[in-house]
Amino acid sequence: MMPLEDETEARRQIGALPYRRLRGGDYAVLLVTSRESRRWVIPKGWPMKGRKPHEAAEREAYEEAGLVGHIGKRPLGFYLYEKRLKNRDSVLCQVKVFPLEVRKQLDRWPEQHEREFRWFAPPEAADAVSEPGLAAIIRASLKRDGEPRL
After folding, report:
1. pLDDT at position 29, please?
2. Could you please report the per-residue DSSP string of 97-120?
3. Whole-angstrom Cα distance, residue 28 to residue 20?
4. Are 111 and 36 in contact (CB under 8 A)?
5. Model pLDDT for residues 16-68, shown as the tens digit of each residue
6. Whole-number Å distance between alpha carbons of 109 and 117
7. Which pLDDT does position 85 carry in this prediction?
8. What is the pLDDT of residues 94-137, one digit of tens each?
């Protein structure tokens, strides 16, 4: 198998899928808006030097939504998307997604005034995101009335 050309190889990112269990056994998923396009996305970003991927995903959830909780060490999967850069170019990114069981949301966090956030039922969260791979991860991970596949 031939290696991909540098310009077509996906840049790696990490993300957190924030969720909480509701009374009655259902789940809720928190999504945030991206800063540029205002699309619904999960907290995500670039790997961080000195942090394991799941630790970096946990940090992104804090910075983007003020979330504190328990991050899983094993990814749920990954998805691909086109990230638009400030110079209007775009790069293909592969996001490795880690589950984050949210314990609380802080009153203040770094990007509080740059994004909106909202809790969704898993099917609505899957419909709200524009990346099919992310929608599939949400649908597969948080099943109604059962144990999450997290």
Report:
1. 96
2. EEEEEEEEE-S--TTTTT--EEEE
3. 5
4. no
5. 999 999 888 889 999 999 988 889 999 999 999 999 999 999 999 999 999 99
6. 12
7. 76
8. 999 999 999 999 999 999 999 999 999 999 999 999 999 999 99
List the structure tokens of 76. 């749920």
User: Is 59 strand, coil or helix?
Assistant: helix
For 81-90, write each residue's pLDDT tens digit: 988 777 878 8
d(CA 139, CA 91): 26
| Tally of CB atoms within 10 A around 113 | 6
* Alpha-carbon gap, residue 79 to 71, rounded angstroms: 18
Query: In sequence order, what are the residues at sequence separation of 6 or more whose Cβ sits closer than 8 angstroms to the Cβ of residue 83?
Result: 11, 13, 90, 91, 92, 93
Token digits of residue 100: 């984050």
pTM higher than 0.90, yes or no?
no
Residues 6 or more apart whose Cβ sits within 8 Å of residue 33: 39, 40, 41, 115, 116, 117
Burial degree of 31 (CB within 10 A; 0-12, 13-18, 19+): buried
State both tokens at 95: 């996001």
Neighbour tally for 56: CB within 10 Å: 23
E strand or H helix at 91, and its extent?
strand 90-105
